[in-house]
Amino acid sequence: MLAADERIRVFWAPGCTSCLRVKEFLTRLEIDYESVNAASSAEHVEEMARLGARSVPIVSRGDAFVYAQSLADVASFLGLEVEVDRQLSPHELVRRVNIILPAGQRYIKQIPDDVLDVRFRNSVRLLRGIAHHVFRIVEAFVEAMETGVELSNELIMDATEAVRPGDDVLTYGSAVLAEFNAWWVRYPDKSCQAQMDTYFGRQSVHDVLERTTWHSAQHVRQLLLVLDTLGIAPDSPLTREDLAGLPLPEKVWEG
């Protein structure tokens, strides 16, 4: 049982994939927590800053917090004994990236330009930025692997907020997929057991590759939701088999 003297709080933002996943995780385990939309007020951002957190999602308790990108880290932080689902192999994750990124390109082609330049639902960024982010997630992973720098939130978000109408996101996506596949051919440890530095702690390359894959996949699911909202039939929608085994949230969007 969890001690009752300190509140468990989840700081999140609309459209954030890891935010939705950790909230579903705690709800599934019937863990009582306070849901804090960090995008709803400057006060919540200041609270995170006081804790020392640079980005969402985080799970906090008193003056301590953990980044919630890894559910295993959240479970450890809260003293929970839970079984972690078996991961797809690195080879299979690479295969899935080669399904997910082209799917994102197909759906971006179908979304009218004027729609790409607005915010979808309660998103904190333009839809064009979300489209760019599908590929930037993968590109940042490759950059971290190739240079040895920390996979920081700033690295993952680089250029996402700056993308503008007219930027060629589709060509960019093709270049990212080519870079990713070239990295995989060169990378010697196909078991991906080496450790790498991330803003949410030291993680195995396998764990970060898994996160990279499902993170991009979740944003592609959001593009599918946009098409559905517009009444546009998607060009070759992702199937259950395409997504099977990835630790995705149940929902596509919150709010």
Description:
The protein is an alpha+beta fold. It folds into two domains: 71 residues, Glutaredoxin (3-Layer(aba) Sandwich); 154 residues, Four Helix Bundle (Hemerythrin (Met), subunit A). 51% of the residues lie in helices and 10% in strands. The strands form two sheets. A four-stranded mixed beta sheet has the order 2-1-3-4, with helices on both faces. A hairpin with a 2-residue loop joins strand 3 and strand 4. Helix 4 packs antiparallel against helix 8 and helix 4 packs parallel to helix 9. The model has no long low-confidence stretch (mean pLDDT 92).
Shape: globular
Helical content stands at 40-55%
Rg, Å, rounded: 18 Å
Q: What's the CATH topology name of the largest domain?
A: Four Helix Bundle (Hemerythrin (Met), subunit A)
State mean pLDDT (0 to 100 scale): 92
Q: Uncertain spans, ≥5 residues at pLDDT below 50?
A: none
Order of helices and strands: EHEHEEHHHHHHEEHH
Count of all domains? 2
Highest CATH level, the class of the largest domain = Mainly Alpha
| Main sheet specs | 4 strands, mixed
State the helix count: 10
Strand tally, please?
Answer: 6
CATH architecture term of the largest domain: Up-down Bundle
CATH superfamily of the largest domain: dinb family like domain
Strand order, largest beta sheet: 2-1-3-4
Helix/strand-derived category reads alpha+beta
Q: How far apart are the termini?
A: 30 Å
Please state roughly what percent of the residues sit in beta strands, choosing from under 5%, 5-15%, 15-25%, 25-35%, 35-45% or over 45%: 5-15%
